[in-house]
Amino acid sequence: MRSDGWHITDDVHDFLDHAGDFLRSRPDLHTVPLTVTEGLRTRGADAYGPRAPVFGFLDRGGEIRGAFFRTPPRHPFLTPLTAADADTLAAHLARLGHRLSGVRADHDTATAFADAWTRRTGATARLHERERLYRLAHLTPPDPLPAGRSRIAGPQDRAQLARWHDEFMTAVGEIATSPGTTWADTRIAQGGVTLWESPDGTPVAMAGTTPMIAGQVRVAPVYIPEPFRGRGYAGAATAEVSRAALAAGAEQVLLFTDLANATSNALYQRLGYRPVTDFAVYDFS
Fold first, then answer.
1. What pLDDT, on the 0 to 100 scale, is given for residue 276?
2. pLDDT-derived band at 1, boundaries 50, 70, 90
3. Strand partners, 206
4. Best CA proximity match to 56, nearest among 35, 75, 74, 77
5. Coil, strand, or helix at residue 217?
6. Which residues of 152-177 are buried (b: 16+ CB within 10 A; e: fewer)?
7. Which of 60, 146, 257, 285 could covalently link to 124 via disulfide, CB atoms 3.0 to 4.6 Å apart?
8. Is it the case that residue 166 has pLDDT exceeding 90?
């Protein structure tokens, strides 16, 4: 469906046919849409839950100027938009009867869309989280590293990865729409999780990476169970997956942080990550 230049579709292939080049034009700002749409393209429309995804792109005279996706019940994720384009998107989705739980985008776009959505629907918006997108400039591993070693997680780690994934989702307040075992199986098949082990072989931390798309890899998630925190394991695991991504040919290695977590923001900057831009997550009543 189309309005004010916005085209809405539930077909990821149609979406990528039109907006794929646009997304690849800024792999850093578009890291989440690139990763999620690749997962939907390769694993099917239910890759992120049983409800059908929704996509949209803004076509102005044959030029794509913006895009969004949504995998319900999660918030829609918007690429950077002008305030006017955020308003036309909010108006179009409201006319179509979409019920949104919130929005996630770069700070200015998220704020503009939240303002437009509340004005047009009567909903209330609450700032839930402020995030910062970082890009690796020059990797500086911790010195000294904590005792132990890294290794790629395998099938024998399935139960532990699933448990840690569920614990991580709870800790960050994210919605899990599929079992942790499903996430673990996908990441194990991709070789997408690195564990840090203590000298006795006990896994004490994990750091994941997304598949490389358009030259970018995103580090996510990084999780350390509470008994093992404060010992340098997060930095060691993150440095290792960052090094591996560079060795595999990644042109950009990215990660998000919660700006309320001063410890993680300081850690990633010590490792060589530098800010790209800030994001915001709003919840709608």
1. 98
2. very low
3. 195, 223
4. 77
5. strand
6. ebeeebbeebbebbbebbeeeeeeeb
7. 285
8. yes
